[in-house]
Amino acid sequence: MIAPLHPREPERLEALHLYRILNTEAEKSFDDLARLASAICASPISLLSLVDEGRQWFKARIGMAATETSRDVAFCAHAILEDDVMVVPDALADARFADNPLVLAEPHIRFYAGAPLVTPDGLPVGTLCVFDHVPRRPTRDQIAALEVLRDAVVAQLEMRRRLLEASDLAAERDAALRTLEDRAAHCPRCSTPSGA
């Protein structure tokens, strides 16, 4: 079953693209948070998944070789529609996922728990999620830990965005200064007369 689009899909995608993180290299800070999620939830697979127009792309991945999947088969495309952690105890018993190729073939997902990554403006851009090959339910402590780690991911995304914006402003300032210096160098009235 393909997930419907988010009610604020255009704004959601704009928020995602403001992070300028899609298709970037792996970063230790995000990898470490995914690794912690995997360890705490005792799950062989954990992902930091970002959902764009047609795919879910993995900024961090533990236990999975693929770097992305189609949005049509993405568990995370469903999870971003939820307010809380979405838990699927057994994907084969859930009508949304029973015939999903990620369930019926590699990586043979049975259990899923995904915490939506929600921006300060309330827009979900992806999830921090864990998977297992066997059906099960997470404990309350595991759900709480996933929420804490999710918040840490969002904080990293926000810090990254602010650093990029600061860098952009510095580059604009430097370009404006160079333009002023060039104009001054070529302005006959601005140059000091010789012998003055």
Brief rundown of the structure:
The chain has 196 residues and is of the alpha+beta class. It has helices at 9-18, 28-40, 75-79, 101-104, 140-185; strands at residues 45-51, 55-62, 68-70, 86-88, 111-118, 124-132. 40% of the residues lie in helices and 19% in strands.
Describe this structure in words.
The protein is α+β, with helices and mostly antiparallel strands and 196 residues long. The chain has a single domain (9-161), classed as Beta-Lactamase (2-Layer Sandwich), CATH 3.30.450. 40% of the residues lie in helices and 19% in strands. It contains five helices and six strands.
Number of helices: 5
Total of domains: 1
What would the CATH topology be?
Beta-Lactamase
Percentage of residues in helical conformation: 25-40%
How much of the sequence lies in strands comes to 15-25%
